[in-house]
Design goal:
By secondary structure, this protein is an alpha/beta fold. The protein is about 50% helix and about 10% strand. The N and C termini lie close together (about 10 Å). It has a six-stranded parallel sheet, with helices on one face.
Length: about 220
C-alpha cells in the first residue's frame, strides 16, 4: 500500500528557527543577567512550552522569572523575524509543491503554540490550507519524545501510524515518531544526532529536497 500521508515537524525542519532560538535565547538571557551555553539550548530542542518552562527553572532555579523571560524572548524573536525575515529550510517549497500536486495528505505536528505556527506560515507565505490539520504541542501534557502528539495527529487524519511518514530533525522528534509507530524520516538540523536516533529512524536525508526522489521511487 502506498503511503500518502506525511506529518511535518516545524522548528528546524521547515524553518531555520532552532538556530534563531539559540541566538535570541542567549540575547534574552543576557538581558536578564543570566549566562547560557550551547549544550543547554540544544537540550531544549523539541520541547513544548510547559516542558521548556520546567527546563529553565531546573537550570536557573525556582526564582527564574520564566513568564517575563518568555514574553521578552518572543518579542525579541518577532523583532528579528520582522526585520530579517524567516529563513526556510532548503527544499521546503519544492517538497510542498510536489506533495500538493500529487495529492498527499499533510499535517504539521509541532511543539510550538498554534498561533506561532500560523504566524510562521504567514511569514513564509505558505497557505495553511495545504495542511489537512495543524496540531500544536500546547494541547498535550507530555511533549516529545512522548508519542501523544503523533498518535493524536494520526487519529485526526484517520490514518494508521504505520502508514504515515513523519519528518523530523531532532532526537526527541524521531523518538516520538518511532514510539507512535509511525515511519520516522530524519533530516538533521543542529541537534546532535546519536547512534540510537539513527537506528530508529527509518530513513535519513541531508535536506527536504531529497525526499522528492525518495517518494517518486516509493510511488
Amino acid at each position: 500500500m502506498k503511503i500518502k500521508t506525511i506529518i511535518f515537524d516545524m522548528d528546524g525542519l521547515m524553518f531555520d528557527t532552532e538556530t534563531l532560538w539559540q541566538r535570541v535565547c542567549k540575547q534574552t538571557l543576557h538581558e536578564f543577567g543570566y549566562k547560557i551555553d550551547s549544550d543547554f539550548t540544544l537540550s531544549t530542542i523539541g520541547l513544548n512550552q510547559e516542558d521548556m518552562k520546567k527546563h529553565f527553572v531546573q537550570q536557573y532555579g525556582p526564582k527564574f522569572p520564566i513568564e517575563k523571560f518568555k514574553n521578552a524572548y518572543f518579542k525579541n524573536m518577532d523583532d528579528v523575524i520582522i526585520k530579517e525575515g524567516l529563513t526556510l529550510k532548503p527544499g521546503l517549497m519544492e517538497l510542498l509543491e510536489y506533495l500538493v500536486a500529487n495529492n498527499y495528505t499533510l499535517a504539521i505536528a509541532s511543539s510550538t503554540d498554534l498561533n506561532r505556527i500560523k504566524w510562521y506560515l504567514k511569514c513564509a507565505d505558505i497557505k495553511e490550507s495545504i495542511f489537512n490539520i495543524i496540531v500544536s504541542g500546547e494541547n498535550f501534557d507530555k511533549g516529545k519524545p512522548n508519542p501523544d502528539i503523533f498518535l493524536k495527529t494520526c487519529e485526526l487524519l484517520k490514518v494508521k501510524p504505520n502508514n504515515t511518514y513523519v519528518l523530523e530533525d531532532s532526537k526527541k522528534g524521531i523518538e516520538a515518531a518511532y514510539r507512535a509507530g509511525c515511519i520516522p524520516i530524519l533530516i538533521p538540523d543542529i541537534d546532535i544526532i546519536d547512534k540510537h536516533t539513527r537506528e530508529i529512524a527509518s530513513y535519513e536525508f541531508a535536506s527536504l529536497i531529497e525526499i522528492i526522489d525518495f517518494l517518486k521511487i516509493k510511488e
